[in-house]
Amino acid sequence: MSVHTRSCVLTHFGQPLALEERPTPHLQDGQILVRVAAAGVCGSDVHIWRGDDPRIRLPLVMGHEGVGYIETLSGERRDVAGRPLAAGDLIVWERAVTCGRCWQCVVRKAPYLCPDRQTYGITRDGSFSTHLVLEASTHVLRADGDPALLTPAVCAGATVAHAIEACDIRPGDRVIVLGPGPLGLFAVAFARERGAGSISAIGIEGSQARLGLCRQFGADQVFIREQGDRPDPAEVVIDCAGTAESVADGIALTAPGGIYCAPGVGKPLGEVPIPFYEQIGRRNLRVQGIWVSDVSHLNQAISLVLSGRYPFHKMITHRGGLEQTTALIQAVQRQETIKAVVMPQE
């Protein structure tokens, strides 16, 4: 059966995406043709659309947070849990394809640092499309539930799971989360799961609704940056805002001997001047960068969403078909949404 794919294509930075129809490639051994059910619009998609991400080459089908149903498979495939896959199964896939042979993949067990890592929707065509061909080496997980609800787990949730792992939060630790968007909401929930003693969330003016949702996810205190009030320094500061200002704020808010962790830096920020002796060396701080994630982190994020312990359904505030993709990206840029999701079959 011949399947044609309708895709939103970025052809010029900052301009409306072009809706194109293309023939779907013939599957090679091990590949999976997915009927994309939902594709999240990430803050990184705004950077990509504007041309802020130096990795991007045009034209590109964006969308790196995909969830969908298997249309066809070429050969036998199983998910990472060893479960056989079949047409009709709902799956979530790791957003990157790595080589599986290099030092980082094999020795360091850090595939997110693979020098040949390719990402759907960033360095290869992605999920703002009715259909997507997944490479044979793509890690997939069989799933259940509302596909839209699972999309934030693919990037925001998985990246924060990586950050939480690196922070090694201990029961009773004080935690501060900078930025109350999807990354921040996952950070609050994961910190609560780890037994944090207190969790404070900080946002900017206009983010009151997001901060209110942080409380529902488990934050004990919320603060508006411009109003001047700040929480006491914390053992763990998770910077989900990813701005030069948040880097400086986050390091200043980290208690002596603590860790400042930055999963929110998704584009070049330039130089951030920090008095290293006074703020890092003398206070014995650990500064931890976080670059994306791997399938173990994706599994943790999906499990958290499906646990039912947190109101992830309230995170999804906007949905639209492929024709609304540009408008959804612009709404994310204006911070009118918490999470927007493209529904390619609508």
CATH superfamily of the largest domain, please?
A: Medium-chain alcohol dehydrogenases, catalytic domain
CATH architecture of the largest domain: Alpha-Beta Complex
Our count of helices gives 9
Q: For the record, what CATH class of the largest domain applies? A: Alpha Beta
Mean pLDDT: 97
Number of E-type strands: 18
Distance between the termini: 21 Å
Summarize the main sheet. Answer: 7 strands, mixed
Structural class: alpha/beta
Low-confidence stretches: none
Number of separate structural domains: 2
Oligomer type: single chain
**Which overall shape is indicated by the principal axes computed on the Cα atoms?**
globular
InterPro entries: ADH-like_C (IPR013149), ADH-like_N (IPR013154), GroES-like_sf (IPR011032), NAD(P)-bd_dom_sf (IPR036291), Zn_alcohol_dh (IPR050129)
Pfam families: ADH_N, ADH_zinc_N
GO molecular function: oxidoreductase activity
Protein name: Enoyl reductase (ER) domain-containing protein
